[in-house]
Structure formats: C-alpha cells, structure tokens
Amino acid sequence: MSKNITCLLLIIFCCCLVPNASAGASFTNHIELLESSITFTVNEIYTDADALAFREDLDTDDDGILDTLEIEDFRERYLSNGGAQFLEYILVDDGALQLSIDSIDIQFENAQGPVDNSTLSVTTTIQYSMSSVLSAGEHSIWVLGHPLIDNMKFVLPKGMEVISYDGLDEASRSAQDGRAVLEGISGIRSFVIEDKPAFEYAAHVTFQKEPFYKNSFFLPLLVVIEIILASIALYIIKKNKNK
C-alpha cells in the first residue's frame, strides 16, 4: 500500500474516532525525542455536543451515568490490538529506522458522572523505542496530522537542531532545558512523488547534530586557545631577543 493511501486511511480512521468533529473538539500533540526513544502524548479536549456524544458512546448500559467499569472497558477495547495503529502515526528517517511500542497509557479527566456536555479531557501517552540511536548526520520525523490539532510540539534530542520543516502552520522555535523546540498548528504538507505534487495532513521535520562551533563551550575554548597561542608566541619572541 502506498504511503499516500495509508495516510488517507489513517486520516479517515482519526476522523472516525472523533464524534461529530467540530469546534467542540481539539487536539494537541507533544512529541519528545531522545537519542533512542520517543514519547508521544496526545491530549484530546471535548466540549458541548462533542463531549456529550463521547460520553454517550462510553455509557454502554445507557443509564445516563458513567462509572469506572465503563471507562475501563473502553480503555481495554481501545488498546486491545496492542496499539498497533500508533506505529502508523510516526515515521523516523522515512521508516528506515524501526519503531516499537514499549507502553501505552490512556487517562480520562472529568469523565465519571452524569452523561452531559461538560468538558472532557482524554490524554494518551505512547512510549516508543528505536532500533538504533539518532547519531551524527541528518534525521527526520514524520507525524500524522489532523485538522483539529491546534498545537504540535516537537522537542529534539539534546545537541540537535532543526534544518527544515513542513506541515506546520504558524510555526515557532524556542529552547527548553537546552533542547531545540519546534511547534505550530497541524497543516498540510506538500511534496513530490514521481514528479507529481502530493499533499497530506502531516508534519515532517528534518534535523541534525549541531555543528561543533555552536556548542556553548566552543567560544570559551577558542579564547583559551588564543591565549595559549599568544603566550607561546610571546615566549618565542622574548627567547629570540635574549640570544
């Protein structure tokens, strides 16, 4: 199956997970990369009619009240396939670097109680491990997007810098604990396949190890080297004068 078809099916799948997708639902994605692992956190917030529809789906006995057992039953059914669908949400180095899922956790906030339209929050955290480490050279990460994702945040491994990105609107760059951060709104990525333009709801970020001269210790080291060289030169000049 081609990547375009896979992406289309995944977008349809994601839309099916959102009851009556509208302004009453919004998502945020937080993607934290380390050298050999990725933590992917998806936060879904439902309000108004979307919150009511979600609660109605969870209320399997239709008694108008959501209890712990119903929420746990949903969690078990949702994760019954081992979270295999999440392996299609992220690609590293265009799929050349294999990912495996170490753990999945899904948490509900303000879910138990009456089936009403009050705000409902669902947070899913997927922990991936990679088949090899992100070493020197260029690397890339591709993450499936969605029209309702109003924030996608990438935190790169320490010592990495962003080269380019696509599929992020209103993007901004910053730093977090000395690590490069890129975030924006999920947008449409454009690319070329067999000389034909193609489009998809996905973010693609290319990054690499920071050059040596960008390290914080480089400038002080350069100053020290210059002082040492100046001292050696001065010593040689004085020694020649004394001869």
Write a brief caption for the model.
This protein has 243 residues and is an alpha+beta fold.
Key features?
single chain; 243 residues; five-stranded antiparallel beta sheet; disordered N terminus
- If strands are numbered along the chain, what order do they take across the biggest sheet? 5-7-2-1-9-12-11
What is the CA–CA distance across the termini?
81 Å
How many β strands by DSSP? 14
Helix coverage percent of residues?
Answer: 25-40%
Derived from helix and strand composition plus strand pairing, the structural class reads: alpha+beta
Description:
The chain is of the alpha+beta class and 243 residues long. The strands form three sheets. The protein has a seven-stranded mixed β-sheet with strand order 5-7-2-1-9-12-11. Strands 4, 8, 10, 13 and 14 form a five-stranded antiparallel β-sheet that branches. Strands 3-6 form a two-stranded antiparallel sheet. It has helices at 3-17, 48-58, 68-78, 218-241, and strands at 25-33, 37-46, 65-66, 90-92, 99-109, 113-114, 120-130, 138-144, 149-155, 160-166, 168-176, 179-186, 188-193, 196-209. The model is unreliable at 1-21 (pLDDT under 50). A hairpin with a 2-residue loop joins β13 (188-193) and β14.
Give the helices and strands, then pairings.
Layout: H1 3-17, E1 25-33, E2 37-46, H2 48-58, E3 65-66, H3 68-78, E4 90-92, E5 99-109, E6 113-114, E7 120-130, E8 138-144, E9 149-155, E10 160-166, E11 168-176, E12 179-186, E13 188-193, E14 196-209, H4 218-241
Parallel strand pairs: 1-9
Antiparallel strand pairs: 1-2, 2-7, 3-6, 4-8, 5-7, 8-14, 9-12, 10-14, 11-12, 13-14
